[in-house]
Amino acid sequence: MNKLRSCCVPCCKDEKFSLVHKFPSDNERAEQWRRVLGIDSFIGLPIEIIRKRYYICSRHFRDSDYKNKASRSINITAIPSINLVTLNDPEGLNRDLPPPHRPSMVAVEHAVEVKKHEIAETKAYERAEKETIQERSSAVNVDLIDFIDDSFTDMVTVVTPKNVTLPTKMANLSTVQTPSPTVKRVIPQRTISQQSSASSTVAVEPPAKIPPTDTNNVLQRRSMVMKPPLNVVPLAGSGMPIANKAGSLVLKRVKVPPIMVERKTTMTQTDELPVDDKPQQAEQEEKLDVEATPSSSTKVLALLECTPDNLQRLQRKLQAEGGALCLDERLLRLADEEDDKAMNSDKTDATVDKNRFLTVRNVKTDESVSVSYVWLRDHCRCKDCYNVETFQRSGSILDLPLDIQPESCEIYDEKINIVWQDGHRSSYDLNVVFSNHVDNFRKRLEEQRAQLVLWDRELITVTNNTSPGYARVTLNDLLCEDAVVCQVVESLLRYGFAFITKVPPNQQSTEMAVKRIFPVQRTLFGDMWTFSESKMDHSDTAYTNGFLGPHTDNTYFSDAAGLQVLHCIQFNGTGGETLLVDGFQAVNRLRETDPDAYERLCEYPLEAEYMEEEKHHRFIAPVIRKHPLVPGAVEQIRFNPYDRAPLRTLAPKEVPQFYADYRKLAVEVHREEAQWKFQLTPGTVLIFDNWRILHGRMAYSGKRVMTGCYVARTEFQSVARVLNMID
């Protein structure tokens, strides 16, 4: 029996049918089917998944959609319909199904019957043809390279002298009448066995002497010349060409399916299957010579769908006519098992999706997303569930049913209106639902990341000499114009730094410039701080006048400062150039040169610490922190060799590798090409992203006084969101 399969059209209610049709392999036609059916569960599903999982029964096709009344195959232009129940003629839901036979079998049997009548009417011609068959011998020479793929070579069946197999790719012909051939095949370094019609295996010994191959009989590839002219009966709808006037038939090169059924007639006992195994000929190529011998005809059946019903019918028919069947039945069992597994899995997935998710489509953008019902219930914004004054939920997570189901749901005027099973009513704005879907949110984050300018010394120097892309604004403009505030924030987001010039060189003016945009973060150093090498108020290398390599601050805090502000308010001496390094660019270079080291630095639990009287800060975190939603993006760098605590967070066997990887990152940030050096003079305030930009200072002599502060990252991002610059 044919396997029963469920119909995906809702009106069939998952009823199973013996005749169903898959979505077309052509994507355009498959999309057309999806649009016509308008099934909600298909919205947003890739067409490959639909083609693999779902079927449409014959009740959604008209008789005219099939090749003929007895056919179970639809035309290439057929389109399903869900409205056939309203038709008056016996089609659609009232259509009488034909017997469960594949069209190829019907066509073959019909062709066989027609041929029997033709043979009966032309017995006289047949007798005369048999008497002169020796004189009109047929030569069929086929180059195996054109008909058999390399992957199919091992599947060629060698039969007993009583049987013969024509080239497998001729199986698209329903019936071919030729004199019985003797097959010669050259196979390099191979053991050949013969399989009789009774499935017995007999070893074939090569003849003592084999005449050389007549190369004149080898014709051009892709062509086959037969004498006398062929009488070819093409399959219905097969599109195979009939022999031309010259008696030659050109076969198109097609991909051979893994399962092929062939039918062979019995040859005379005196026929042989010689094998030529000469080394010099085997090294050149494989050839197949088919020479005519007096006997009966050979019939090649069409391709069949490997179902148990077709297999049994074919076995009975061939046994009745003394034929042989070459078919691996294990393939049938494996195929059936895979189909059963896929059907069960598909049914489970469909049930889960139907019970737990709602698929909605944006008519304007033709965008479809799946939203879980529990998410919708949790995001209800009615007055009972949400406080519009505090912008917070009013209910408890313990009151949220995880298996919540809607009693009714409708989408109208860009709104989703749901009545839940407990009677609660919710309404949602479609634009809000789409905006908060994870795919759209991730897409916006990726677009924002794409706007970052990763720079090195060469790029930033060229930019500075032409028209700076980063912000360099005056304090007066910053205080008077909101657009300048946006310019500074945008520069911090894209380049990681910004400059405010013409600032009076004192702590109060610096604080005023910062607070125009951000609130100041209070730390153990205070709100605003001022220091010099002559007054070491804190235990930090920055309070010395020696070289200070590229680093980030606050690695010992659980939440390192987001921005750092530096203003040199007094300098009498030499040296002391400020240096900046784009940490994101340095990490990208490391990932390109040594991706394994990059991945390990994202995992090593490195501890940092800060100690002074009555203060001791520690924190453990990786050197590189990946962005949680944007693949391949870095969110934070914690690189400060000065703040490293005793290394006690790694197993001894990991320690050597850690030092090697940490050193590779240090090499990247200390490259001269990566460092931008400039003199930070009194009157210029530098603001930079402490999660991205590494800063340092060259050694100096003389007196140098610095003032500055920190800005919490959450405050920095808050301002950027208020200005609609980030999500």
Descriptive overview:
The protein is an alpha+beta fold. Helices cover 28% and strands 21% of the residues. The protein has 19 helices and 32 strands. A six-stranded mixed beta sheet has the order 19-20-30-23-32-21. A four-stranded antiparallel beta sheet has the order 22-31-24-29. A hairpin with a 2-residue loop joins strand 25 and strand 26. Helix 16 crosses helix 17, helix 16 packs across helix 18 (655-669) and helix 17 (595-601) crosses helix 18. The longest helix is centred in the middle third of the chain and has 28 residues, at 329-356. The chain is elongated and about 120 Å long. Residues 85-89, 134-303, 327-332 and 346-352 have low confidence and may be disordered.
Entry summary:
The chain has 727 residues and is α+β, with helices and mostly antiparallel strands.
Shape: elongated
Average predicted confidence as pLDDT: 73
As an assembly, this protein is single chain
Extended strand count: 32
- Rg: 40 Å
Strand order of the largest sheet: 19-20-30-23-32-21
Helix tally equals 19
Q: Distance between termini?
A: 58 Å
Give the uncertain stretches in residue-range form.
Answer: 85-89, 134-303, 327-332, 346-352
Characterize the largest beta sheet: strand count, sense, and whether it forms a barrel: 6 strands, mixed
Strand content: 15-25%
Helix content: 25-40%
Main structural class: alpha+beta
